[in-house]
Task: structure prediction
Amino acid sequence: MSYWFDDTAVCVTYVRGLTPEEALDRLDAMVTDDDSLDQYAVAAFAVDGGVVLAEPNGFATTLDDVITKLSKGTVAATVFFNVNLDQQFVYAADGVVVTQFEPDQPGDRAGSDPDALLPQMRQLGMEADSDLDKATELAELVTGLTLPDDDAEPDLIGELPEYY
Result:
């Protein structure tokens, strides 16, 4: 699974209550057997309570139009980073981006309710100082989902349309 959770750039999205098929359908992703995709690839991992999506070197699920589609009728949280030290956390509920911020600047939040996750952020000690590990903990806390095991293989692989 190291390919999907690369340490140079990845976007990981937790979506409560969806199957891998439903998540890829909401992304308009074309299911493929090609695990060598390097651009526009998304891996879908079924986990207890929902699905975890991994985009190696991608960021589609940080985009408002994309995360709102994924979160219709449920909740979704995304953690993104890349080699340029760009970072993003996005939390959406029922088609609305509720809270978003850069994990290294958690005090500068945006969204329809920027402080909605403040109690959880305080619980994790990330109100004024944070990092990607804490952002991942926050995503897991607010969705109730956890990352698959390190040796897990994706249930489905999809090729995303060109969102960006």
